Amino acid sequence: MISLKREVDTLNELERTTNELRAQIERTKASEILDEQDEELTKLQLENMKLKHRLAILERVKALEAKKQCTATAISSNNLTDSTSSFSAIAIPTTIEEMIPISAHLIDLFTNAIASAFPHLAGTSAVITPVSSNAAKFGDYQCNSAMSLSKTFKADQSSNKSPRDIAQEIVKQTTASPLIDKLEIAGAGFINVFLKKSYAVSALTNTLRIGIKPPQVKRQRILVDFSSPNIAKEMHVGHLRSTIIGESISRLLEFLGHDVLRINHLGDWGTQFGMLIAHLEERFPNFLNESPPIGDLQAFYKESKKRFDEDEEFKKRAYNRVVELQSGEANSTKAWKLICDVSRKEFQKIYERLDVKLSEKGESFYQSRMVEFVKFLEQNNFLELDDGRRIMWPTNEKTGIPLTIIKSDGGFTYDTSDMAAIRYRLEEEKAEWIIYVVDAGQSIHLQNVFLAAKRCRILHPCYHRADHVQFGVVLGEDGKKFKTRSGDTVKLTDLLDEGLKRSLAKLKEKERDKVLTPEQLRAAQESVAYGCIKYADLSHNRLNEYVFSFDKMLEDRGNTAVYLLYAYSRICSIARNSGKDFSQVNKVLDTVKIELEHEKEWKLAKTLLKFPDIVLKISKSLLLHLLCEYCYEVCTTFSEFYDNCYCIEKDKYGVITKVNCSRILLCEATALVLRECFNILGLKPVDKI
């Protein structure tokens, strides 16, 4: 038990240090907003890189410590024999002909090499970083383990090897890889890794033949909770981020082969329905047979809330209707169902426009399960009486904010509903990983729910993962919360309509209406409108706020959906305009081999090969702006390639004189990668725009 406590203390200390480093990095980033001539800028950037490197190491160590705590294996820091005896070399394939996560492959390769070179450090994971494409002379990837290992040697006084000496030992023990052309040691001890062109040719050829395959991961059952609008209210801009981010995360995880449950936790229960039914009885006598349109429901809701706040008699009637609804009284139940059905139909219109798929399990679904959950807490002595209400502390130490499980009037709360929901999701749905895509304002609440679930042994850290994918608010161009000119919340349907209007104007400005058929124009209009709204959201780090601006998101330069969609359309047109048939690419590949002789061809190929690493990285961080940055990198790299490498050559009369089929195959591979990225992001590209 003492050893286990030591592991917990170590983990907590690592958590604190990691958070401090994150704060340092953010402060350093903020300090970088200096004039380019500022002599401190280079120093700050270098310090930022060091902090990021140290943070990455700490996070890996923290993960290992958490695993040790989870298995309750107490290994003392000086018992090296126990910690290394279980290490076995990772199998490295001798032939690879498909796109794989290159960073992961190199980590395995150099981790083995470290274990062979220094057996007492077996199990030490290699540190691999990609090299900027603008610094090709330093290779394509770097192994930077030698520096940290040198510090380890000095700390235990077992050796005084320099980082460069350590790097040489690692290189000697590195086995051959079908991905690596050569290794070079540079500077203080950096191991530069140069990729093989033959691997790139094989991987891209295979991709063109069979399509993009996801990197291999352990299949999990994952529940993603997102969107979650309230019944009897229209969806507004506040629902935009959760809906878009949640849909993209679901698409990413499905692409990786996981079993994904997309859940819409609707607000379909509670006091508001008592207010609405009581108000409808008076203002809309026929409510039992015909529910008013959603716009009227919205107005009715505001009126009923005003009366509820000001009229005590009305408040009593509203409470009575809630009691009747909860007891299953026929008229109240029918009215509630009518209201829910009207709202669902309106929500579905939004989801269809945004190409979002969800399964509904609203708050009402958990009513019976809340009763069962309260009994479970009572039986296990987790509930305490506090000023008439019954509470549950999230931790055994009884610190922080307690969850209110039963109110003083005997009613349940959101805390009760969320705890019943997480229990259902883990125990009945058998989810292994739950992702809540909810705004940052719910951070403390969800943290308490996760802690409470761990405390009452519903959520087991060894087997389950629960994440709060939080995000900042959407701002208007005035820097304030996005509202209409009158100060009202922007309705989502109005926002999408405005997007269609603006995108059509943009297409007509470029005279695309004179080139495209009416059907093609409509497809392009929707692709641009909905694509730019989604991409403007996803291209920003979700942890930050962002300014919603149609003018900026409809720009055709820079990292915007419009630029990417135009670039994709242009790439698709190259094969069409070649005069040759590339529709059956397998037949072309039987006679044409991809060549990567020009430096821009090679640069484009290496950029495409990053795709598996990118999606794996995002599956861990759930930060989708990284995929947007990758899409932009692919498009700008392709632009360099196209400007320097002729795919189709014509004479002065415009007659095609030469077609470079190898380069057109590279164009087709680029389109394939972009199409998969767009699918994950929820963009719908069109061949003609």
UniProtKB/TrEMBL annotation:
<keyword id="KW-0067">ATP-binding</keyword>
<dbReference type="GO" id="GO:0017101">
    <property type="term" value="C:aminoacyl-tRNA synthetase multienzyme complex"/>
</dbReference>
<keyword id="KW-0436">Ligase</keyword>
<protein>
    <recommendedName>
        <fullName>Probable arginine--tRNA ligase, cytoplasmic</fullName>
        <ecNumber>6.1.1.19</ecNumber>
    </recommendedName>
</protein>
<dbReference type="InterPro" id="IPR005148">
    <property type="entry name" value="Arg-tRNA-synth_N"/>
</dbReference>
<dbReference type="InterPro" id="IPR001412">
    <property type="entry name" value="aa-tRNA-synth_I_CS"/>
</dbReference>
<keyword id="KW-0648">Protein biosynthesis</keyword>
<dbReference type="Pfam" id="PF03485">
    <property type="entry name" value="Arg_tRNA_synt_N"/>
</dbReference>
<dbReference type="Pfam" id="PF05746">
    <property type="entry name" value="DALR_1"/>
</dbReference>
<feature type="coiled-coil region">
    <location>
        <begin position="4"/>
        <end position="61"/>
    </location>
</feature>
<dbReference type="InterPro" id="IPR009080">
    <property type="entry name" value="tRNAsynth_Ia_anticodon-bd"/>
</dbReference>
<keyword id="KW-0030">Aminoacyl-tRNA synthetase</keyword>
<feature type="domain" description="Arginyl tRNA synthetase N-terminal">
    <location>
        <begin position="104"/>
        <end position="195"/>
    </location>
</feature>
<dbReference type="InterPro" id="IPR014729">
    <property type="entry name" value="Rossmann-like_a/b/a_fold"/>
</dbReference>
<dbReference type="GO" id="GO:0004814">
    <property type="term" value="F:arginine-tRNA ligase activity"/>
</dbReference>
<dbReference type="InterPro" id="IPR008909">
    <property type="entry name" value="DALR_anticod-bd"/>
</dbReference>
<dbReference type="InterPro" id="IPR001278">
    <property type="entry name" value="Arg-tRNA-ligase"/>
</dbReference>
<dbReference type="InterPro" id="IPR036695">
    <property type="entry name" value="Arg-tRNA-synth_N_sf"/>
</dbReference>
<dbReference type="GO" id="GO:0005524">
    <property type="term" value="F:ATP binding"/>
</dbReference>
<comment type="similarity">
    <text>Belongs to the class-I aminoacyl-tRNA synthetase family.</text>
</comment>
<feature type="domain" description="DALR anticodon binding">
    <location>
        <begin position="564"/>
        <end position="689"/>
    </location>
</feature>
<dbReference type="GO" id="GO:0005829">
    <property type="term" value="C:cytosol"/>
</dbReference>
<keyword id="KW-0963">Cytoplasm</keyword>
<keyword id="KW-0175">Coiled coil</keyword>
<dbReference type="GO" id="GO:0006420">
    <property type="term" value="P:arginyl-tRNA aminoacylation"/>
</dbReference>
<dbReference type="Pfam" id="PF00750">
    <property type="entry name" value="tRNA-synt_1d"/>
</dbReference>
<keyword id="KW-0547">Nucleotide-binding</keyword>
<dbReference type="InterPro" id="IPR035684">
    <property type="entry name" value="ArgRS_core"/>
</dbReference>
